[in-house]
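Record minuted for everyone:
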Amino acid sequence: MSRAKSLQYYIVARLLLAPLMLWTIITIVFLLLRATPGDPADAILGTRAPESAKEALREELGLNAPLWVQYGRYLLQVLNFDLGSSLTSRGQSVWEVIRQYFPATVELTFIAISIALVIGMAVGIMSAMNPNTGWDLGGRLFGIITYALPLFWVGMIMQLIFAVQLRWFPLGTRFPVGLPTPKGITGLYLIDSLLTLNLSQFFTALYYLTLPCLTLGLLLSGIFERIVRVNLRKTLQSEYVEAARARGIPEKTILFSHALKNAMIPVITVMGLTFAALLGGAVLTEVTFSWPGLGNRLYEAISLRDYPTVQGIMVFFGLIVVFASIIIDIVNALIDPRIRY
């Protein structure tokens, strides 16, 4: 079987498995939400509300129905591309919640992953090019420390130093309160401000993005540093690299034209999955920095037992991860002709 035909069969198989994976996610989230303590009626009306009002609300929301009936109703909704309506934002559908909050998460994730990739690759390359030296030791320590530090703790420390004490950056939020936000074309403030040629809004949005993106990107960079260092060092010790050195090819050419391309294959895989995972839940960063993204909205929905919103956002995140993994496999196959499926 040819490589192209093999890749086609693999893609079709993954696409056929995608509904099964999403069904598994839907089922797990549905059961876990209802297994956790707490009552949506208490979250919406308050614990001091009359029991008759709570009972009427439960009946209205369908929470008094047997579990299998609730599950069947929700599956039918999902099959009709209906994620339901938010319990805490009455009258607002879950799709509207996603459209409102998702652009902020995309903006945060894209810049953070770019920062992580630049820092991680730079440190990883320096470490791999200088084995058993101070550069190598520093790179290893950098990778271990940034990988091990808890995100919420680093976020609070960064806020304390750069926002509270030095006052270089704002403490949180996405845009100054009281100032008009960029015109809602895409929902991405950086893109919208450029499309409307409003450089003042562009630099303001970038300024508010800096601290949360730098915090998240710095901690993620350790993952890329370790992968680049290990794979690049292994590649630099391979026979074809030694042959290139024997022919007198400059070390810089060997690094960028031969070794780095092969070492980047696992980096692309991790980058894609990390990007998808961040889109699906940079929850700690968004909560720490009061960032109005989908991760923060998911946290609020979980706290308030807003079942439809939590389920809908998790289904949306599941779609992102499933299709991102398929795209990553295709990109890897196009880059590396040795890959077979």
Notes: The first helix runs from residue 3 to 35. The CA atoms of residues 160 and 166 lie 8 Å apart. The chain has a mean pLDDT of 81. The chain is about 75% helix and 0% strand.
